[in-house]
Design brief:
Helix content is 33%, strand content 25%. With 372 residues, it is of the alpha+beta class.
């Protein structure tokens, strides 16, 4: 696949091309002290000169001092929000002249181009594809949004403190599921992007850009960016035999130790790019003239999530944390044939008490070793 050189000042031209055909532009932008994916209109709204710093239960922005556009890693918003919205109306009914009329809402919001998607989030999208459209029971709303999604991916230049994508085989290099791929290269006073198309639609954009082919030296610089990011990954999660480890620890007291720190707030599931739990909410007016049913995100950390006629199946915080982590790293393999974790580290960053899933796995491994 051909690789082209796009000058830094021509990034605005790329955004103009992406907006053609009525596409909604979504990209990274700084808001409320975080970098989120949201509507953007120009390069000026991108987080130029900003990077994010992650810690256990901590996140902050700081100046990158080099004018880079994609120096950040991941914020709390992933592609999930645009393919599997936090809330969507399933149907509405209205009373008209004494009888009810049903109304089916639109399944999608039209074509969207998302800029700045990282390898871990593309891996998460592939997992959700398997859940929502890869089996006999398809979510047609997800399918419609997925079909009209144009992805501009970006190779990571450095890893965040909580990233462990290398352990999960999901990054930092983007290898699939993109229309266009950017690699930002900064060498002294030279600032440019390498552009590579992954689809026919992406190739049409590169042709319209009119960018020259990258030289051998420029492509080598791009590879160096990715290898630098790979080398900067600090956290590790040992996945060898992890399913067996978690199943062996199902009755361990360790889960109650974790529960002493867990608030059952559900933050980890809200920011996770693969979690897909949801519930339905019915709303009606007092006169009975209007009713609406919506699908909204839910979390296995809420007590009500496992509520049945005889009470909650998982009454304790420890049981709920066990459910989340065991499903993510073990049960997901049985259910979908892969891990449910992509190593983005969001659950660590956005946990108010800084619970670290990689450290919890280490602790469980110690338990299984001492009981053998």
């Amino acid at each position: 696949m051909s690789i082209y050189r796009l000058e830094h000042e021509d990034l605005s031209h790329l955004l103009e091309l992406l907006a053609q055909g009525g596409r909604r532009l979504v990209g990274p932008t700084a808001r409320d002290g975080t970098i989120v994916l949201d509507d953007v209109q120009s390069v000026n709204e991108l987080p130029v000169g900003l990077r994010d710093q992650h810690s256990q239960g901590g996140y902050r922005l700081e100046a990158s001092e080099d004018g880079s556009v994609f120096a950040f890693n991941v914020g709390p918003v992933s592609l999930k929000r645009f393919l599997f919205p936090p809330e969507r109306v399933l149907f509405r009914t209205r009373r008209v002249q004494g009888h009810l009329e049903a109304e089916a809402p639109e399944r999608n919001d039209g074509p969207i181009a998302v800029i700045g998607v990282r390898a871990c989030d593309l891996a998460a999208m592939a997992i959700q594809d398997r859940v929502f459209i890869g089996d006999a029971y398809r979510d047609e709303g997800y399918a419609a949004r997925r079909e009209q999604l144009f992805i501009v991916a970006v190779n990571c230049a450095s890893a965040g403190h909580n990233c462990f994508c290398t352990s999960m085989g999901t990054g930092p290099e983007v290898t699939e599921n993109y229309d266009l791929l950017l690699t930002e290269v900064m060498e002294k006073a030279d600032h440019y992007f390498l552009v590579q198309a992954g689809t026919t639609e992406g190739a049409a954009i590169t042709t319209s850009l009119g960018a020259p082919a990258a030289t051998t030296e420029e492509m080598a610089s791009g590879r160096a960016v990715v290898e630098g990011a790979r080398a900067s990954v600090e956290k590790k999660l040992d996945t060898k035999g992890i399913k067996s480890v978690l199943y062996q620890c199902a009755e361990s007291n360790h889960w109650e130790e974790v529960a002493k720190r867990c608030l059952s707030c559900g933050n980890c599931t809200m920011v996770c790019p693969t979690c897909f739990c949801s519930t339905v909410v019915d709303t009606t007016d007092l006169a009975g003239e209007f009713a609406e049913r919506s699908q909204v995100w839910d979390s296995c950390f809420t007590a009500e999530y496992s509520q049945m006629h005889g009470g909650a199946v998982r009454e304790t915080t420890g049981a709920r944390y066990r459910q989340w982590m065991t499903h993510k790293l073990a049960g997901w393999h049985d259910q979908f044939g892969s891990s449910g974790c992509v190593g983005c580290g969001r659950c660590i960053t956005w946990c108010p008490t800084g619970i670290d899933i990689t450290e919890e796995v280490k602790g469980l491994r110690v338990l299984t070793e001492t009981t053998v």
